[in-house]
Amino acid sequence: MKQFNCGDVVPGCNARFVFDSEAKILESVARHAREDHGLTDIPPQLTEQVRAKIRPAA
Ligand SMILES: [Zn+2]
After folding, report:
1. Predicted confidence pLDDT, tens digits, the chain (58 residues)
2. Which domain holds residue 48?
3. Ligand 1 centre from 50 Cα, in Å?
4. For 33, which of 6, 38, 39, 49 could close a Cys bridge (C-beta 3.0–4.6 Å)?
């Protein structure tokens, strides 16, 4: 399993994503960014930041 904490990219956000693949995390984070952060378009740069923070789930 892999995990991503939104707070690593957006300070103060407590959202946490745990999925078995990076693709699923990115998909879910994109939805979260749209619904909770009002980002209708995810810049490639942000996707890279998210990808860089994905860690193996403990
Ligand atoms: Zn967030």
Report:
1. 999 999 999 999 999 999 999 999 999 999 999 999 999 988 999 999 999 999 999 7
2. 2-56
3. 11
4. 39
**DSSP structure class, residue 13:** -
Query: Taking the alpha carbons of 33, 49, 10, 53 in that order, is the dihedral positive or negative?
Result: positive
Query: In the chain, what's the furthest Cα-to-Cα distance?
Result: 31
If one counts the domains in the chain, the total is 1
Task: For residue 30, report the distance from its CA to the centre of ligand 1, in Å.
Answer: 10
CA of 45 to the centre of ligand 1 (A): 16
